[in-house]
Every structure is written in structure tokens, then in C-alpha cells.
């Protein structure tokens, strides 16, 4: 499988969702981390909505064991719909219908947890020989941003694969995959040519402060590379390792980066998850004004300022 000379229209998205969500235990013991609510929608619905807004209505979700609730969420719930109809609750009925009518949402199991690269490889038979997007559920991109659309445009203009990059503080770059980049002639500074990738570099050894975040538009030739990519960090098949090989592969068309400077919510980290709840909560169409008012008032209280006695909290639990 090789990169085509004429860019193909991108219509498919892949969402890896087979992880165990161990950072959120015990909440994720019986509930997939992708189903944890962010205000009033599960995290994965934000991701599917983002794909659909960008024109990617064919969505494949890579799941694992105990993820049946993902399929249930994007399916029709006739009993619930009938109950809402009888009550005349049109608002909630529309919300329930929306999750079931976002697009064509398909599911396939990864089988065993062998890393992000292997999860993407599981999409091969569904994707076929055409470029496709990969969206990680831990990264929520604000609905007012157009990152995925920009990445699709970059792939159509330059071919190959495209990754999303974001500037992070130097003392945090070791938490991410990191890109070395060079300018692309004729493009603005946010479109760059990726010349190297380093997975979680040591502090002081990173080639830049540009971290890879969870959005990719991939050339189908990546499947052939992933097929022979050996397990890397964590004894898992790393997508970063395959992209690193693609950088120097004429058949794969190289790798372009799109530097994102907008709003991103990291729901894979407990603290950032709470921040995302607040930031999206104050902008909620129905709840935002009241929540913002309460938040501003509460922020001036002794409780908010840490002046109350919280000794009763179980430190091991909390």
C-alpha cells in the first residue's frame, strides 16, 4: 500500500478507546473512561461530534472488553425515547436522538492491549486504501476551534501524514512525544515539516517544545509500517515509532505538523478533567450563567481558599 499521487477525500475517522482508564480508578472499574461525563455528555461524544463537524461521518471506534456501554450510547434506546415522548419532554428527547444520529459509528475490538499503534492497525480492513483521521478521546478540542479541518486541508495540500502539535512548557515536554520541525515554504508558521520525532524525551534533550497531541490524519501507507513496527516504549507498538519511519519514506509522503494554539481539554488527567468540567461548565448554554455566578461567589469563601478544616477527609481515598 503506497501513498496515492492524487489526494483522496477524507471521510473516515478512527477513535481508539480500548484503554483501561487506570488513572481514574475506581470510577472506571465498571464504566469505560470514555463514558465519564464532561458536564452533561460523555467524553467520547465530544470527540465523535468533532469528527462529524469536520465531515468525517464514518467513525470506527476501537474498543476492548467491558466497553459495551459505548455501543449502547450511540444506539437507539426505544424504551427511553417512548418514555420521553409520553412525558412531552422534547428537549431531552432531542438530546437522546442526537447521540444516536451523529453518523455511522462502527465498533471493532482490539483483542489485546498492544498499544496505540496496534489499535490503529486494527482499523485497516475498515479504512482501506485512503487517508483517515485518528482522534484520541483524552484530548477534547473546543468546538469553536477548527483543528481537524486545518489538518485535513494540510494533508490535501502536502500529502503524507499530518500530526497536531502544541507548545508546552519545557519542564513538561518529557510527558509527550516531541517533534523536531522545519518551515514549509509558502505556508504560515503553524504549518511545519516534521523532521524527527522523539517519544517522551528527557528534560534538556527535547528537540523543541512542540508536543504531539491526540489528533492525526494518516496516509494509509502507515498500515504497512505499523505491520512491521516492533514494540517500543512500554513494550507496546507505538504510533510515534511508525510516524518516525514515515518521515524518511518517499512512499509515505513524509509528515507535516499543524501547530495548534487554541483551547484543548485534557480529560485523561484527573486534575485537567476537573478543569475541563469548569471551563466547559461556565460556557454551557443552559447552566453556564448560573454556574459562573456561583463559582465567582464560592471562590471568595473560606472553603475555596482552603481555610476550612478538611481533616476528616480520608487522604488515602482522596
UniProtKB/TrEMBL annotation:
EC main group: transferase
Superkingdom of the source species: Bacteria
GO molecular function, one term: UTP:glucose-1-phosphate uridylyltransferase activity
InterPro entries given in the database record: GalU_uridylyltTrfase_bac/arc (IPR005771), NTP_transferase_dom (IPR005835), Nucleotide-diphossugar_trans (IPR029044)
Catalytic activity, as annotated: alpha-D-glucose 1-phosphate + UTP + H(+) = UDP-alpha-D-glucose + diphosphate
Record family assignment: Belongs to the UDPGP type 2 family.
Pfam families found in the cross-reference section: NTP_transferase
Nucleotidyl transferase domain location: 12-277
Known EC number: 2.7.7.9
SUPFAM superfamilies: Nucleotide-diphospho-sugar transferases
Keywords for this protein: Nucleotidyltransferase, Transferase
Species in which this protein is naturally found: Luteipulveratus flavus
Protein name stated in the entry: UTP--glucose-1-phosphate uridylyltransferase
Amino acid at each position: 500500500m503506497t501513498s496515492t499521487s492524487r489526494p483522496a477525500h477524507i471521510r473516515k475517522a478512527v477513535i481508539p478507546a480500548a484503554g483501561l482508564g487506570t488513572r481514574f480508578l475506581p470510577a472506571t472499574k465498571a464504566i469505560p473512561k470514555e463514558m465519564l461525563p464532561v458536564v452533561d455528555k460523555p467524553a467520547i461524544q465530544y470527540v465523535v461530534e468533532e469528527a462529524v463537524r469536520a465531515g468525517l461521518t464514518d467513525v470506527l471506534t476501537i474498543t476492548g472488553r467491558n466497553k459495551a456501554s459505548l455501543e449502547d450510547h450511540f444506539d437507539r434506546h426505544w424504551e427511553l425515547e417512548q418514555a420521553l415522548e409520553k412525558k412531552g419532554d422534547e428537549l431531552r428527547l432531542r438530546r437522546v436522538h442526537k447521540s444516536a444520529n451523529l453518523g455511522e459509528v462502527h465498533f471493532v475490538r482490539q483483542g489485546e492491549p498492544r498499544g496505540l499503534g496496534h489499535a490503529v492497525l486494527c482499523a485497516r480492513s475498515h479504512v482501506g486504501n485512503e487517508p483517515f483521521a485518528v482522534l484520541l478521546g483524552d484530548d477534547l478540542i473546543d468546538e469553536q476551534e477548527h483543528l481537524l479541518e486545518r489538518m485535513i486541508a494540510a494533508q490535501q495540500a502536502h500529502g503524507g501524514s499530518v500530526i497536531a502539535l502544541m507548545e508546552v512548557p519545557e519542564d513538561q515536554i518529557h510527558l509527550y512525544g516531541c517533534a523536531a520541525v522545519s518551515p514549509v515554504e509558502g505556508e504560515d508558521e503553524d504549518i511545519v515539516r516534521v523532521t524527527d520525532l522523539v517519544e517522551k524525551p528527557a528534560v534538556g534533550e527535547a528537540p523543541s517544545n512542540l508536543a504531539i497531541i491526540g489528533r492525526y490524519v494518516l496516509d494509509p501507507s502507515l498500515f504497512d509500517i505499523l505491520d512491521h513496527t516492533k514494540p517500543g516504549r512500554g513494550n507496546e507498538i507505538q504510533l510515534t515509532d511508525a510516524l518516525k519511519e514515515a518521515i524518511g519514506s518517499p512512499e509515505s509522503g513524509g509528515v507535516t505538523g499543524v501547530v495548534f494554539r487554541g483551547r484543548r481539554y485534557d480529560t485523561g488527567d484527573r486534575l485537567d478533567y476537573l478543569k475541563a468540567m469548569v471551563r466547559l461548565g461556565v460556557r454551557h448554554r443552559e447552566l453556564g450563567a448560573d454556574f459562573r455566578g456561583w463559582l465567582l461567589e464560592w471562590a471568595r469563601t473560606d472553603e475555596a481558599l482552603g481555610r476550612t478544616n478538611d481533616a476528616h477527609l480520608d487522604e488515602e481515598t482522596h
